[in-house]
């Protein structure tokens, strides 16, 4: 191992990754490795385990077109059952990345060639050069849109497309023009801006899917740390695509009183609560973000004591690389998601941010989220946390009821 590399343990893998010391992780690293994205990779493995059972996927044919250190593909080899792997193709346009992937495979006693391969190519060319896959992971720096057409082209019926976007400034409404240009949608900077961002990303993938008559339905889509990620299940057929497109709507939001509703296009209406003109975001996916059954299976898989443990991982081995992102945090996160998933069909898109409601309505004392949820449930409404923020509440209660509850009535 050269002086430029440190060793990390993540899941069952032990990898050489570039040393980054106190410097911020950046795309200028010789080969990219972000320890914060351990959560992203943990969730990937859990999802693949759960999805195989739920959707009857017998063997995974995986494309990792932007593999960097190879951590994701290597973890799949080590952590998924071998009999469930048809093949894993790792690729990166960087020679240094491909060399490091091969080195990391040797370190983990994985043979190159055969089922597991490493190539150097531009991601779109790599995808087009290959036969279809049933799991494709698009994980670029920033905006993923430029890879979606080829990914969809190479995605099998009943396969999963995973897309990570780190350009959250566009998706969550800081860079409005960039979002319109790149995602063909208007974002909105408010308490539920990250949920809006998830829905905008999903719609873009679905539009591209529809061009290929592939209906992409989100089965697990979330915001965490600095990224937005969607897992989309692919089913071929024009009718299915039309169903998906029929759920592309707008979210209307009143900046004066926090009223929200789903819009069908047209001129911004006035708020039915306070009369001010509402703001709008979209078009976006207004359907469910999660498959509830999948979320529950993932919670159970994460709790399985036989799983690879990396509770202090990626673990520091030689004092130069490591972080604090552990398994317990993932378990908590998944439980919140499962709760959200159970009620989202009734609660719909968007949520109330308690701090915004307090601010706009001059409520001095902000109640605890758990208290608000409990009171809403006692009144007979659906209510749950949202994984996007600890102070958001997803509910089917109207604003007037929510306000009363926040005021302690
Ligand atoms: C964010 S990193 C991927 C991280 C990796 N998936 C992981 O989980 O650690 C992006 C990687 O994509 C590669 N890359 C960016 N654009 C590419 C392209 N057009 N074709 C192939 N590789 C690309 C970069 O060299 C970099 O290694
Ligand atoms: Zn209003």
Describe the structure.
With 409 residues, this protein is α/β, with parallel strands linked by helices. It folds into two domains: 5-338, Rossmann fold (3-Layer(aba) Sandwich); 352-406, Phenylalanyl-tRNA Synthetase, Chain B, domain 1, CATH 3.30.56.70. Helix content is 36%, strand content 24%. It is built from 14 helices and 16 strands. Helix 5 links the parallel strand 6 and strand 7. Helix 10 packs antiparallel against helix 11. The longest helix has 21 residues, at 327-347. The structure holds S-adenosylmethionine and zinc ion. Residues 32-33, 37, 41, 65-69, 71-72, 92-94, 97, 122-123, 139-141 line the site of S-adenosylmethionine (SAM).
Q: What is shown here, in short?
A:
This protein has 409 residues and is of the alpha/beta class. The chain contains 14 helices and 16 strands.
Order of helices and strands: EEHEHEHEHEHEHHHEEHEEEHEHEHHEEH
- Unreliable sequence segments: 310-325
Task: Tell me the strand percentage band.
Answer: 15-25%
Strand order of the largest sheet: 5-4-3-6-7-9-8
Which CATH architecture of the largest domain would you pick? Answer: 3-Layer(aba) Sandwich
Radius of gyration: 22 Å
CATH topology of the largest domain: Rossmann fold
CATH superfamily of the largest domain: Vaccinia Virus protein VP39
């Amino acid at each position: 191992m050269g002086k430029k590399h440190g060793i990390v343990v993540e899941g069952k893998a032990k990898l050489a990754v570039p040393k980054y010391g106190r410097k911020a992780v950046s795309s200028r690293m010789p080969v990219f490795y972000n320890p914060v994205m351990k959560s992203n990779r943990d969730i990937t493995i859990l999802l693949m385990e759960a999805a195989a059972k739920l959707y009857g996927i017998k063997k995974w044919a995986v494309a990792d077109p932007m593999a960097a250190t190879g951590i994701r593909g290597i973890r799949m080899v080590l952590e998924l059952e071998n009999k469930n792997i048809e093949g894993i193709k790792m690729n990166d346009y960087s020679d240094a990345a491909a060399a490091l992937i091969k080195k990391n495979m040797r370190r983990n006693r994985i043979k190159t060639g055969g089922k597991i391969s490493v190539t150097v190519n531009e991601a779109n060319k790599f995808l087009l050069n290959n036969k279809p896959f049933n799991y494709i992971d698009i994980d670029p720096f920033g905006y993923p849109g430029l890879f979606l057409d080829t990914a969809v082209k190479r995605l099998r019926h009943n396969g999963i497309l995973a897309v990570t976007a780190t350009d959250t400034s566009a998706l969550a409404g800081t860079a409005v023009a960039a979002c319109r240009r790149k995602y063909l949608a208007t974002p909105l900077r408010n308490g539920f801006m990250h949920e809006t961002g998830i829905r905008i990303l999903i719609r873009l993938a679905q539009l591209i899917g529809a061009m290929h008559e592939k209906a992409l339905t989100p089965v697990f889509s979330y915001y965490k740390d600095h990224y937005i990620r969607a897992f989309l299940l692919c089913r071929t057929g024009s009718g299915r695509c039309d169903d998906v497109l029929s759920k592309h709507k707008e979210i209307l939001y009143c900046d004066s009183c926090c009223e929200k509703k789903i819009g069908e296009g047209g001129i911004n209406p006035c708020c039915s609560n306070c009369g001010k003109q509402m703001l709008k975001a979209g078009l976006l996916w207004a359907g469910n973000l999660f498959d509830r059954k999948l979320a529950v299976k993932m919670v159970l898989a994460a709790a399985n004591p036989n799983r690879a443990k990396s509770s202090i991982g990626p673990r520091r081995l030689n004092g130069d690389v490591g972080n604090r992102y552990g398994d317990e945090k993932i378990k908590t996160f998944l439980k919140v998601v499962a709760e959200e998933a159970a009620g989202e069909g009734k609660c719909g898109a968007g949520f109330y941010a308690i701090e915004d409601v307090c601010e706009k309505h001059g409520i001095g004392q902000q109640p605890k989220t758990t208290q608000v949820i409990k009171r809403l449930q006692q009144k007979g409404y659906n209510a749950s946390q949202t994984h996007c923020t600890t102070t958001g509440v997803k509910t089917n209660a109207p604003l007037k009821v929510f306000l009363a509850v926040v005021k302690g009535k």
